[in-house]
Amino acid sequence: MASLNAIAKKLVTRGQGILAADESEGTIAKRFALIGLPVTLESRRDYREMLFRSTEAMGKYISGVILTEETLEQNAADGTPFRDILAKADVIPGIKVDRGAFPMPGARDEKITEGLDGLRQRLRHYAELGAGFAKWRGVIAITSYAPSRNGIRANAHVLARYAIHCQEAGIVPVVEPEVLADGEPGDHSIERCAEVTAETLEAVFKELRLAGVDLSGMLLKPNMVTTGMRSREKASAEEIARRTVDTLREYVPAAVPGIAFLSGGQSDEEATANLSAMNQIPGLPWALTFSYGRALQTSALVTWNGESENVPAAQRAFTHRARMNALAARGEWRPDLDLAA
Ligand code: 13P
Prior knowledge:
Blueprint: H1 4-11, E1 17-20, H2 25-33, H3 41-52, H4 55-61, E2 62-67, H5 69-72, H6 82-88, E3 92-96, E4 101-103, E5 111-113, H7 119-128, E6 133-140, H8 149-168, E7 172-179, H9 190-211, E8 219-220, H10 237-251, E9 258-261, H11 268-279, E10 287-292, H12 294-304, H13 311-328, H14 335-340
Parallel strand pairs: 1-2, 1-10, 2-3, 3-6, 6-7, 7-8, 8-9, 9-10
Antiparallel strand pairs: 4-5
Helix pairs in contact: 4-13, 8-9, 9-10, 10-11, 11-12, 11-13, 12-13
This protein binds 1,3-dihydroxyacetonephosphate.
């Protein structure tokens, strides 16, 4: 078995990143609503098969894929296990292990993520199936009531409990505390996001240390420091990059091998531009890459539109987005490369 540090480092190989394809049944239904497609076991399978069989994207730009429990054990239409398709492309399979974020008792506007019960046994099973890493998402909302100190602390604590369980099972934990940009009301300033992100990361690393998590055998999946999605102000990629890196430098130990951002509702091009701007900042102690869901998939989903004859065009759209983000992970993306396509 490869060491946790070796797996973590491979996931953040320079010029590669993670495809988040772990939408729950509810979330994938929301995505399919965009193209008016009903969600069935087959439609979910066909869509994900289209992504996983994008040979160029998977072979060159994607280091790992976050799967759902369903997909980790699923076969393509011709019976080939998805795991074999990923293995052939040298892509590490990962697994979303949280069971979703639910209203937090005793709190207003806050959620707590569930899924610790039985996690030890589930992780053992996922490790047997070849999962190299896992993901757990904690959600921190910004409203006039939230986040409270208790909300941040509780989410940080379960993230640490999850992370140490993963490491005991030989699985790299991807620790995802997401300060929401696209929540309600979503009109907060970039300063407020910076403040809440700082408090959250401080709490998360305190809990990870207390739990005895080996920081060299994990990855962080944070939000970027941005304005709320419905804020009247909009920050430039340079400002987002500077504020995000400043916050991370203060709270994320250099022992963490890599940071793979979520896209959080940013447009495809924003998510790419922001990542590229961060990677142009000199002297970063960790690898910075993507672990995008929407910002990698939306153009492919819309092009696919649920029809098998659109698969090659959808795969080209996905490959293009993956390539743009791979360039951004090197700090080498330029807007004209997107325009040209
Ligand atoms: P987005 O990039 O669409 O935010 O999704 C990433 C993810 O895994 C959220 O948990």
